[in-house]
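Late entry, evening session. Most of the bench is empty. Finally got around to the prediction I had been postponing all week. Sequence below, unchanged from the version circulated by S.P.
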Amino acid sequence: MSNDPSKTLAAVNDMRQDWAVVDPLMGGTRAMRAASTALLPKWPKEEREDYDNRLKQSTLLPAYSETVKNMTGRVFAEPLTLGDDIPEDIKAYAENFDRQNNNLQVWAQTFFSTALAYGLCHVLIDYPKTVDEQGNVIVRTKADEKATNVRPYAILIRPQQVLGWRSTSNNGEHVLTQFRYLELIEEDDGEFGTKFIPQVRVLTPGGWATYREQEKDGLKAWLLHEQGTNSLKVIPLVSHQAIVNGLDPQARSRLNGLLMTGAMAGMAAGAAIGSFVWAHTGTLGLYGFAAAAALAALAVSFLHHPLGDHSHD
Protein backbone atom coordinates (compact mmCIF):
# COMPACT_ATOMS: atom_id res chain seq x y z
CA MET A 1 0.00 0.00 0.00
CA SER A 2 1.28 3.46 -0.88
CA ASN A 3 0.08 6.85 0.36
CA ASP A 4 2.75 8.71 -1.62
CA PRO A 5 1.05 10.78 -4.36
CA SER A 6 4.36 11.03 -6.28
CA LYS A 7 4.68 7.25 -6.70
CA THR A 8 4.61 6.14 -10.35
CA LEU A 9 2.75 3.10 -11.61
CA ALA A 10 4.68 0.18 -13.09
CA ALA A 11 3.09 0.89 -16.48
CA VAL A 12 4.41 4.46 -16.36
CA ASN A 13 7.90 3.26 -15.47
CA ASP A 14 7.86 0.92 -18.47
CA MET A 15 6.89 3.73 -20.84
CA ARG A 16 9.48 6.07 -19.36
CA GLN A 17 12.20 3.72 -20.57
CA ASP A 18 11.10 4.43 -24.14
CA TRP A 19 10.67 8.15 -23.49
CA ALA A 20 14.23 8.30 -22.15
CA VAL A 21 15.37 7.38 -25.66
CA VAL A 22 13.02 9.86 -27.34
CA ASP A 23 14.02 12.83 -25.14
CA PRO A 24 17.55 13.30 -26.57
CA LEU A 25 16.34 12.48 -30.09
CA MET A 26 13.92 15.39 -29.83
CA GLY A 27 16.34 17.58 -27.86
CA GLY A 28 19.12 17.48 -30.45
CA THR A 29 22.88 17.58 -30.07
CA ARG A 30 22.89 19.32 -26.69
CA ALA A 31 20.55 16.70 -25.19
CA MET A 32 22.60 13.90 -26.75
CA ARG A 33 25.78 15.26 -25.18
CA ALA A 34 24.03 15.66 -21.83
CA ALA A 35 23.04 11.98 -21.98
CA SER A 36 26.76 11.19 -22.33
CA THR A 37 27.59 7.47 -22.11
CA ALA A 38 23.92 6.49 -22.17
CA LEU A 39 23.89 7.25 -25.91
CA LEU A 40 27.58 7.60 -26.84
CA PRO A 41 29.45 4.64 -25.29
CA LYS A 42 32.93 5.06 -23.88
CA TRP A 43 35.43 2.59 -25.29
CA PRO A 44 36.99 0.20 -22.73
CA LYS A 45 40.50 1.66 -22.99
CA GLU A 46 39.49 5.21 -23.84
CA GLU A 47 40.75 7.88 -21.47
CA ARG A 48 38.15 10.18 -19.95
CA GLU A 49 39.70 13.27 -21.52
CA ASP A 50 39.67 11.61 -24.94
CA TYR A 51 36.05 10.62 -24.49
CA ASP A 52 35.06 14.14 -23.41
CA ASN A 53 36.74 15.58 -26.50
CA ARG A 54 34.96 13.04 -28.72
CA LEU A 55 31.66 13.87 -27.04
CA LYS A 56 32.16 17.61 -27.64
CA GLN A 57 32.79 16.96 -31.34
CA SER A 58 29.86 14.56 -31.78
CA THR A 59 26.59 15.80 -33.25
CA LEU A 60 23.17 14.20 -33.49
CA LEU A 61 21.57 13.78 -36.89
CA PRO A 62 18.06 15.22 -36.31
CA ALA A 63 16.33 12.46 -38.29
CA TYR A 64 13.72 11.66 -35.63
CA SER A 65 12.82 15.25 -34.70
CA GLU A 66 12.71 16.29 -38.36
CA THR A 67 10.39 13.38 -39.15
CA VAL A 68 8.03 14.44 -36.34
CA LYS A 69 8.19 18.05 -37.55
CA ASN A 70 7.52 17.13 -41.18
CA MET A 71 4.66 14.74 -40.36
CA THR A 72 3.07 17.38 -38.14
CA GLY A 73 3.43 19.89 -40.95
CA ARG A 74 1.58 17.57 -43.32
CA VAL A 75 -1.35 17.23 -40.90
CA PHE A 76 -1.56 20.99 -40.32
CA ALA A 77 -0.74 22.08 -43.87
CA GLU A 78 -4.15 23.78 -43.97
CA PRO A 79 -5.22 26.06 -41.10
CA LEU A 80 -7.85 24.78 -38.69
CA THR A 81 -11.30 26.19 -39.30
CA LEU A 82 -14.33 26.12 -37.02
CA GLY A 83 -17.71 25.34 -38.55
CA ASP A 84 -20.71 27.62 -38.52
CA ASP A 85 -22.34 25.40 -35.89
CA ILE A 86 -19.66 26.24 -33.31
CA PRO A 87 -20.93 28.70 -30.64
CA GLU A 88 -19.38 32.15 -30.66
CA ASP A 89 -18.04 31.68 -27.12
CA ILE A 90 -16.05 28.62 -28.26
CA LYS A 91 -14.71 30.52 -31.27
CA ALA A 92 -13.50 33.24 -28.92
CA TYR A 93 -11.82 30.64 -26.70
CA ALA A 94 -9.94 29.31 -29.74
CA GLU A 95 -8.06 32.62 -30.06
CA ASN A 96 -6.40 31.99 -26.69
CA PHE A 97 -6.99 28.30 -26.20
CA ASP A 98 -4.75 27.76 -23.18
CA ARG A 99 -4.81 31.25 -21.64
CA GLN A 100 -1.11 31.44 -22.54
CA ASN A 101 -1.80 33.43 -25.74
CA ASN A 102 -1.62 30.33 -27.97
CA ASN A 103 -4.45 30.03 -30.47
CA LEU A 104 -6.01 26.68 -31.32
CA GLN A 105 -3.80 26.18 -34.41
CA VAL A 106 -0.52 26.60 -32.48
CA TRP A 107 -1.72 24.63 -29.48
CA ALA A 108 -3.01 21.73 -31.58
CA GLN A 109 0.29 21.44 -33.46
CA THR A 110 2.20 21.16 -30.19
CA PHE A 111 -0.31 18.63 -28.86
CA PHE A 112 -0.13 16.50 -31.99
CA SER A 113 3.67 16.59 -32.38
CA THR A 114 4.17 15.63 -28.72
CA ALA A 115 1.86 12.64 -29.13
CA LEU A 116 3.57 11.68 -32.37
CA ALA A 117 7.03 11.82 -30.79
CA TYR A 118 6.21 10.02 -27.55
CA GLY A 119 3.18 7.97 -28.55
CA LEU A 120 0.90 9.68 -26.06
CA CYS A 121 -0.23 13.11 -24.86
CA HIS A 122 -3.06 14.44 -22.70
CA VAL A 123 -5.22 17.54 -22.46
CA LEU A 124 -7.03 18.67 -19.34
CA ILE A 125 -9.87 21.18 -19.52
CA ASP A 126 -9.53 23.37 -16.45
CA TYR A 127 -11.34 26.35 -14.98
CA PRO A 128 -9.95 29.19 -12.82
CA LYS A 129 -10.83 29.37 -9.15
CA THR A 130 -14.15 31.08 -8.43
CA VAL A 131 -13.49 31.60 -4.72
CA ASP A 132 -10.95 33.75 -2.90
CA GLU A 133 -8.41 32.59 -0.31
CA GLN A 134 -11.06 32.80 2.43
CA GLY A 135 -13.47 30.62 0.44
CA ASN A 136 -15.83 33.42 -0.54
CA VAL A 137 -17.49 33.05 -3.96
CA ILE A 138 -16.30 35.78 -6.32
CA VAL A 139 -17.97 34.59 -9.55
CA ARG A 140 -21.73 34.12 -9.38
CA THR A 141 -23.18 35.24 -12.71
CA LYS A 142 -22.35 35.24 -16.41
CA ALA A 143 -21.56 38.94 -16.10
CA ASP A 144 -19.04 38.12 -13.36
CA GLU A 145 -17.40 35.56 -15.65
CA LYS A 146 -16.99 38.09 -18.44
CA ALA A 147 -15.76 40.80 -16.10
CA THR A 148 -13.07 38.55 -14.57
CA ASN A 149 -12.34 36.64 -17.82
CA VAL A 150 -13.12 33.36 -16.09
CA ARG A 151 -13.71 30.61 -18.65
CA PRO A 152 -12.57 27.06 -19.52
CA TYR A 153 -9.11 26.56 -20.99
CA ALA A 154 -6.84 23.71 -22.06
CA ILE A 155 -3.77 22.39 -20.23
CA LEU A 156 -1.37 20.23 -22.22
CA ILE A 157 -0.01 17.40 -20.06
CA ARG A 158 3.09 15.79 -21.53
CA PRO A 159 3.50 12.05 -21.05
CA GLN A 160 6.59 12.52 -18.85
CA GLN A 161 4.43 14.40 -16.32
CA VAL A 162 2.05 11.50 -15.69
CA LEU A 163 2.50 9.58 -12.45
CA GLY A 164 -0.48 7.26 -12.41
CA TRP A 165 -4.21 6.75 -12.69
CA ARG A 166 -7.11 4.61 -11.53
CA SER A 167 -10.14 3.50 -13.49
CA THR A 168 -13.21 1.35 -13.23
CA SER A 169 -15.80 -0.19 -15.52
CA ASN A 170 -19.27 1.33 -15.47
CA ASN A 171 -21.81 -0.62 -17.56
CA GLY A 172 -19.01 -1.73 -19.85
CA GLU A 173 -17.56 1.78 -20.19
CA HIS A 174 -14.01 2.55 -19.10
CA VAL A 175 -14.23 5.40 -16.57
CA LEU A 176 -11.30 7.32 -15.10
CA THR A 177 -11.59 7.71 -11.32
CA GLN A 178 -8.18 9.25 -10.52
CA PHE A 179 -5.38 10.91 -12.46
CA ARG A 180 -2.07 12.13 -11.03
CA TYR A 181 0.58 14.25 -12.73
CA LEU A 182 3.58 16.40 -11.84
CA GLU A 183 3.62 20.12 -12.61
CA LEU A 184 5.99 23.02 -11.95
CA ILE A 185 4.55 26.13 -10.31
CA GLU A 186 6.40 29.40 -10.79
CA GLU A 187 6.40 31.66 -7.75
CA ASP A 188 8.13 34.92 -6.83
CA ASP A 189 11.47 34.53 -5.06
CA GLY A 190 12.74 37.63 -3.29
CA GLU A 191 12.37 41.07 -4.77
CA PHE A 192 13.29 40.22 -8.37
CA GLY A 193 13.68 36.47 -8.83
CA THR A 194 11.34 33.56 -9.47
CA LYS A 195 11.51 29.87 -8.61
CA PHE A 196 9.81 26.70 -9.79
CA ILE A 197 8.21 24.41 -7.22
CA PRO A 198 7.38 20.77 -8.09
CA GLN A 199 3.78 19.95 -7.32
CA VAL A 200 1.67 16.80 -7.69
CA ARG A 201 -1.90 17.39 -8.83
CA VAL A 202 -4.49 14.69 -8.15
CA LEU A 203 -7.75 14.81 -10.11
CA THR A 204 -10.92 12.93 -9.20
CA PRO A 205 -14.52 13.26 -10.43
CA GLY A 206 -15.83 16.36 -8.68
CA GLY A 207 -12.58 17.30 -6.96
CA TRP A 208 -8.87 18.03 -7.04
CA ALA A 209 -5.91 18.28 -4.66
CA THR A 210 -2.29 19.40 -4.85
CA TYR A 211 0.68 18.10 -2.86
CA ARG A 212 4.11 19.65 -2.28
CA GLU A 213 7.24 18.09 -0.84
CA GLN A 214 7.89 19.40 2.66
CA GLU A 215 9.96 18.41 5.64
CA LYS A 216 8.11 16.68 8.46
CA ASP A 217 9.76 15.15 11.53
CA GLY A 218 13.14 15.48 9.85
CA LEU A 219 11.98 13.63 6.72
CA LYS A 220 10.76 14.90 3.38
CA ALA A 221 7.21 13.95 2.43
CA TRP A 222 4.55 15.01 -0.06
CA LEU A 223 1.93 16.82 2.02
CA LEU A 224 -1.44 18.27 1.07
CA HIS A 225 -1.10 21.86 -0.16
CA GLU A 226 -4.55 22.76 -1.53
CA GLN A 227 -7.79 21.01 -2.41
CA GLY A 228 -11.13 21.89 -3.90
CA THR A 229 -14.30 20.67 -5.56
CA ASN A 230 -16.14 21.21 -8.83
CA SER A 231 -19.51 20.30 -10.28
CA LEU A 232 -18.23 17.71 -12.76
CA LYS A 233 -19.02 14.02 -12.48
CA VAL A 234 -16.06 13.04 -14.66
CA ILE A 235 -12.40 14.01 -14.94
CA PRO A 236 -12.25 16.38 -17.97
CA LEU A 237 -9.18 14.70 -19.46
CA VAL A 238 -8.67 13.49 -23.04
CA SER A 239 -5.70 11.38 -24.14
CA HIS A 240 -4.33 11.35 -27.68
CA GLN A 241 -2.75 7.99 -28.43
CA ALA A 242 -0.46 7.85 -31.46
CA ILE A 243 1.03 4.39 -30.89
CA VAL A 244 0.13 1.08 -32.50
CA ASN A 245 -3.24 -0.07 -31.19
CA GLY A 246 -4.20 -3.67 -30.54
CA LEU A 247 -0.75 -4.65 -29.24
CA ASP A 248 0.23 -5.43 -25.69
CA PRO A 249 2.80 -3.09 -24.04
CA GLN A 250 5.65 -5.59 -24.47
CA ALA A 251 4.96 -5.88 -28.21
CA ARG A 252 4.86 -2.09 -28.56
CA SER A 253 8.11 -1.85 -26.63
CA ARG A 254 9.76 -4.35 -28.98
CA LEU A 255 8.55 -2.41 -32.01
CA ASN A 256 9.85 0.85 -30.53
CA GLY A 257 13.15 -0.85 -29.79
CA LEU A 258 13.36 -2.15 -33.35
CA LEU A 259 12.57 1.30 -34.75
CA MET A 260 15.21 3.00 -32.57
CA THR A 261 17.78 0.31 -33.32
CA GLY A 262 17.21 0.68 -37.06
CA ALA A 263 17.39 4.46 -36.89
CA MET A 264 20.57 4.48 -34.82
CA ALA A 265 22.17 1.80 -37.00
CA GLY A 266 21.36 3.83 -40.11
CA MET A 267 22.84 7.00 -38.60
CA ALA A 268 25.96 5.16 -37.46
CA ALA A 269 26.43 3.56 -40.87
CA GLY A 270 25.94 6.89 -42.63
CA ALA A 271 28.50 8.56 -40.38
CA ALA A 272 31.04 5.76 -40.85
CA ILE A 273 30.66 5.60 -44.63
CA GLY A 274 30.68 9.40 -44.89
CA SER A 275 33.92 9.61 -42.90
CA PHE A 276 35.50 6.91 -45.11
CA VAL A 277 34.44 8.66 -48.33
CA TRP A 278 35.64 12.05 -47.11
CA ALA A 279 39.01 10.64 -46.03
CA HIS A 280 39.63 8.98 -49.44
CA THR A 281 37.90 11.29 -51.92
CA GLY A 282 37.61 14.66 -50.20
CA THR A 283 34.72 17.11 -50.14
CA LEU A 284 33.45 16.42 -53.68
CA GLY A 285 33.28 12.71 -52.97
CA LEU A 286 31.35 13.37 -49.76
CA TYR A 287 28.86 15.55 -51.64
CA GLY A 288 28.44 12.80 -54.20
CA PHE A 289 27.80 10.23 -51.51
CA ALA A 290 25.19 12.48 -49.85
CA ALA A 291 23.42 13.01 -53.18
CA ALA A 292 23.42 9.27 -53.91
CA ALA A 293 21.99 8.50 -50.47
CA ALA A 294 19.23 11.09 -50.95
CA LEU A 295 18.34 9.63 -54.36
CA ALA A 296 18.25 6.12 -52.89
CA ALA A 297 15.89 7.29 -50.13
CA LEU A 298 13.69 8.98 -52.74
CA ALA A 299 13.59 5.78 -54.80
CA VAL A 300 12.57 3.70 -51.78
CA SER A 301 9.88 6.22 -50.91
CA PHE A 302 8.56 6.13 -54.50
CA LEU A 303 8.44 2.31 -54.49
CA HIS A 304 6.28 2.38 -51.36
CA HIS A 305 4.10 5.31 -52.47
CA PRO A 306 3.99 5.67 -56.28
CA LEU A 307 2.78 8.95 -57.75
CA GLY A 308 -0.97 9.22 -57.52
CA ASP A 309 -1.23 6.69 -54.69
CA HIS A 310 -2.60 8.50 -51.64
CA SER A 311 -4.29 5.52 -50.03
CA HIS A 312 -2.12 5.87 -46.90
CA ASP A 313 -2.38 9.64 -46.51
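Two things to note before I forget:
Helices lie at 10-27, 29-35, 48-57, 63-75, 88-94, 104-118, 142-148, 249-304.
The CA atoms of residues 2 and 35 lie 31 Å apart.
Will write this up properly tomorrow.
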